[in-house]
């Protein structure tokens, strides 16, 4: 079955154009640098391009404003990824900071009103970035702290601390907020924008697993693994044709039970609608989905295994419970009927009805 993905942008080129406007230096460096290049040098160059200073070229500022406006339009349409929205909010705060510095360059540079407004803009953008990202990875069944979720996806703990201070305490200093916004944009580039391909295919890139043994990617190894990363890992596991409960448990911890089951359902639909139908893949997705469900049920039951020794025992228990429930219902109906007869109120008279004049008891 064909699955349609609705995006707020017109085509892939529009999204890549926004990426070029937001990250001109990173895009050019990512184009000419091989994947095995020096990551430290790339990170240094990335952080240096997000400097808040009045020396930024007017053309670059104009391109970023245009990109922010376009993302704002995408947000109105709906379905805009959180990383795209967070990038626009952080860069909008940095543009406001640059324009504020340009306005106060010939005046008192310590204008309290202007500084407070810029700090508030930085704080709102950064808090929305961190909160929305961590909430999207939160497990509704088992609530975890923000630090635990941040460690799972590779988000620095300093981001959570800065978000907490900006939300519950006095606004952080402008110097710290500027540094946090720059670091946040570098992290978003590595986590989301860097993984976008030039085609309409999968956005994320996952390291190829070689050798006979298979292992699921850990959060610290592949922090950017989302969406298609889960799909690629599940496809490789299904192609191996082996049962490994430890690997399945890592899948659930990494991406969550809901996402794993959703991706398995999509893989099964594609395999079932293919010509000829891939029966092996369809059966593999059904088996893996059942294993994931049983594993979650076993974990909910104090970690005990979901093993039934006697196949007739559950049925007999259900029959006994049904009989007891029917008996309780009958007793309740009898009790209600007796109470209704004894209590005052409307009830059906016995015998034939006889007319009485008004006022006669």
TrEMBL record:
PANTHER family: RIBOSOMAL BIOGENESIS PROTEIN LAS1L. GO terms for cellular component: Las1 complex; preribosome, large subunit precursor. GO terms for molecular function: endonuclease activity. This is Uncharacterized protein. GO terms for biological process: maturation of 5.8S rRNA; maturation of LSU-rRNA. Residues 296-361 are annotated as: Disordered. It holds the Pfam family Las1. It comes from Pyricularia grisea.
